[in-house]
Amino acid sequence: MITEIFAIMAPVLVCAAIGFFWARQGHGFDPDFISRLVLNVGAPALMLSVLGSVEIDMGAFQRTALACVLVAMLMAVLGAVIPRLMGHDVRAYLPSLVFSNSGNMGLPVCMLAFGDEGLALALAFFMVLSVAHFPAGILLAGGRAAGGLRGLIKMPVLYALALALILLWQDWQLPRALENSVTLIGGMTIPLMLITLGVSLQRLQVRQWKQALMYSVLRIGGGLLAGLLVVELLDLQGIARGVVLTQASMPVAVFNYLFAERFQRQPEAVAGMVVMSTLMSFATVPLLLWWLL
Predict the structure, then answer these.
(1) DSSP-derived 3-state class of residue 14
(2) Does 151 score more than 70 pLDDT?
(3) Which of 39, 50, 75, 266 lies 20 to 30 Å from 102 when distance is taken between CA atoms?
(4) pTM for the whole structure
(5) Residue 265 gets which letter from DSSP?
(6) Check: CATH 1.20.1530.20 for 2-20+31-288?
(7) Where do the H-state alpha helices sit in the chain?
(8) What does the alpha-carbon distance between residue 270 and residue 164 come to, in Å, rounded to a whole number?
(9) Rounded to the nearest 10 degrees, how much is the dihedral formed by the CA atoms of 78, 82, 88, 92?
């Protein structure tokens, strides 16, 4: 079992280490550009590639997406209550508790642990959270909600999802040339996500580490408890259960820091949560996989 878990985590750690030491050597890397490239090009291609080629239960796909909504709602309640009780800025801390790193870290872990079907379900979780993250994250940080509805309809991942679901429903396949193209482009997505995570870990600094530790425990532990409640409520079993619990207990998403920095909503505190929760996840994810597998 230890060997199996190490085999799952090793590619995650190696890719993150590449990004970490790349940034440590002072080489150029633009996380904002890479993140936009991944979200607007890589993730839609990955979604088309995976959902267009794997046999998946549409009911499980829909329940996983619903599970994401319920987990996010539970974490939103936690994020609205705890910071207020602690006398902290709710708008600074709530996004970090709600929006987990279901992309950079969640997708590769689910792919390596649960295979192509797990990756397909993890994409459902990631897609729902991403659609909510940009308008809600920017609004809470102090800016306008990414153009409102106009911002949402410009997200390529929505159209990729719609096309993928049509292909699944009709049992169609993409033309060979297009299928090869989206497979090649989608293949860059997960490595780039992990390398970006490593760069962020090197560049961000932890200040007020006790506070960062407390909120990191809330993000990971609270997410796991919310996930457990939701999988029981929806009666999720097998791979779907494992994917929801894994995605729900991911660390704080790096994008929360980008939003906080852009609108100066306590970026140092958010950076501390990103780093601390990610470092914690290198221990908690193997433990979770040991329990699930």
Answers:
(1) helix
(2) no
(3) 266
(4) 0.84
(5) S
(6) yes
(7) 2-24, 31-37, 43-51, 58-86, 90-98, 106-141, 149-153, 156-170, 176-186, 189-203, 209-234, 238-248, 254-262, 267-292
(8) 35
(9) -10
